[in-house]
Amino acid sequence: MNLHLSGHHVGVTPAIRSYVLEKLGRATRHFDQVIDLHVIMSVEKLRHKVEVSVHVAGKDIHVESIDGDMYAAIDALADKLDRQVVKHKEKLTIHRHEAEPMKRQIADV
């Protein structure tokens, strides 16, 4: 997994970097096929915005979160990303299981 972390009008401190790694690690626990993570953090007046683009096998997932605090924005982003990764994983497993009965029906005829 490659992680690219950048800040726009905000300095990326080692504390923020480790916090992002800890929170986004949940996505890799659910789905092993995460290839790249591109995280962009920005500050505009009092709005802290965090965006992430995740490249997984077969799909790109983009999530963003805006909050008054950078750490709260990262937490909300991690929750949103976790839900989308689980949803993508479930779609993959559902499609695989639906194809098997069709093959059996064709073979029985």
Explain this structure.
This protein has 109 residues and is of the alpha+beta class. The protein has one domain (2-108): Ribosome hibernation promotion factor-like (Double Stranded RNA Binding Domain). It has two helices and four strands, in the order E-H-E-E-E-H. The chain has helices at 14-30, 70-108; strands spanning 2-8, 34-44, 47-56, 59-67. The chain has a four-stranded mixed sheet with strand order 1-2-3-4, covered by helices on one side. Helix 1 links the parallel strand 1 and strand 2 (34-44). Helix 1 runs parallel beside helix 2. The longest helix is centred in the C-terminal third of the chain and has 39 residues, at 70-108. The mean pLDDT is 84.
Assign the CATH superfamily: Ribosome hibernation promotion factor-like
Question: Number of DSSP helices?
Answer: 2
Could you tell me how far the N terminus lies from the C terminus, measured between alpha carbons in angstroms? 46 Å
**Gyration radius from CA atoms, angstroms:** 18 Å
Strand % is 25-35%
Sequence of strands across the biggest β-sheet: 1-2-3-4
The gist of it:
The protein is an alpha+beta fold and 109 residues long. Helix content is 51%, strand content 34%. It has a single domain, classed as Double Stranded RNA Binding Domain, CATH 3.30.160.
